[in-house]
Amino acid sequence: ELSNTEKETKKKLKSELKYQRRVQKLETRIKHAISRKDPIVEQAARGELELLLRNRDNNNDGLYQQQMIQQEQVVHDERYENTIQLVRDIFHQLLSTWEDEKEGQTACNKIEQNRRARGLLNHMTKGTQSLVLFKDITALRGYTRQKFYSRAILIVETFGKLSIPYQPYVSLNQKDVIDECWKKMSNITRVCSVGCGPGCDSIGLLAFLRGYIHNDEVKRSLPMHFILLDYAINDWKDAVLNDLTSILSNSFGSEVVCEYCDVTVPLQEQHQQVWPLLETTDIFLISYLLTETRDKWDEYLAQLVEKAKQGALFYFAEPLPWQLHRLIRMSTSPDSVLSPLKRLRFAWVDSSMNHPEMQELDGRAGGPALLLAIKS
After folding, report:
1. What predicted TM-score, i.e. pTM, was given to this entire model?
2. CA–CA separation, 82 vs 94, rounded Å?
3. How far is residue 125's CA from residue 348's CA, in Å, rounded to a whole number?
4. 39-91 pLDDT, tens per residue?
5. Quick one: which of 35, 38, 281, 303 has the most CB atoms within 10 Å?
């Protein structure tokens, strides 16, 4: 049973999480408004955020929250600004390909795209999505308008943290994982995005490597190889990925392979043609997928880890950490089916990165749950 002090600490942390979610919601609204060039929504959101922060500053409890933000914040240096600009350029280039389409074909105004996307997002949040929902190209493009930029930036900011000196609170085991991940970033040329959607994670990683790692012409000339796997891959190709593949190929000399994937079915039963590619992949990106397919991905992920090479990196992002907690528990399971997961070593890189006391909680302050893993 918790002591009174421990109960008070836990209560304070939960209050902090609630406050941070409100801040994150407003910050996300501002980012989306900037991306859409909507000054009215941006100004209103900034006003709400300023009021919220000002009120919290008058409360001594906000000192802990301010410390968390300072410890977690990514340095907005020239590398960061150049990286963000590259993400923005690719995103706007993608949007321009839709605007150039002839009226009467698949073009549709962004208001209608966003309206239809809300229904799809609602089902994905609850894990009730079905393949028929992805047949609506307008909804998929609305989803891309709403999520592409912020999800790509999330990749940039997550890996950007690895370049910052750590706080002394990071455990030694997790510090070792973070150190290894950072060292391996310079050798990444093969990327697999599982549940890729519109390809935002891959663009975020490409931009990060260009801005932070590939700092000379030799490294910039290295061809990148992307494997994009998704349950609705043909629909995503028609709506977004065909255009994105052209951008990656023409502007960056990248090779892109798109294949069907269902993480609720064992890997051994599908897409055998890409198995050799998975065995040489440097990093696997898995975002907002484990929650959408909650409790159904066990065998697929275990078999994916088994196929991955030693030293392969895994990036997980989920709205809440419950499925990532489940993954960590599974990595110690005696079940032989899950035994490959024992070779994963984990490190939290979200708001709990420098706060071990928060890592077991069912929420995160100021954003999604983010977990890195490396295969030993």
Report:
1. 0.80
2. 18
3. 22
4. 888 888 887 877 777 666 555 444 444 444 444 556 678 899 999 999 999 99
5. 281
Query: What is the residue type of 317?
Result: A
Angle between helices 298-307 and 322-330 (to 10 degrees): 60
- How far apart (Å, rounded) are the C-alpha atoms in residues 87 and 83? 6
Tokens of 35: 């991306």
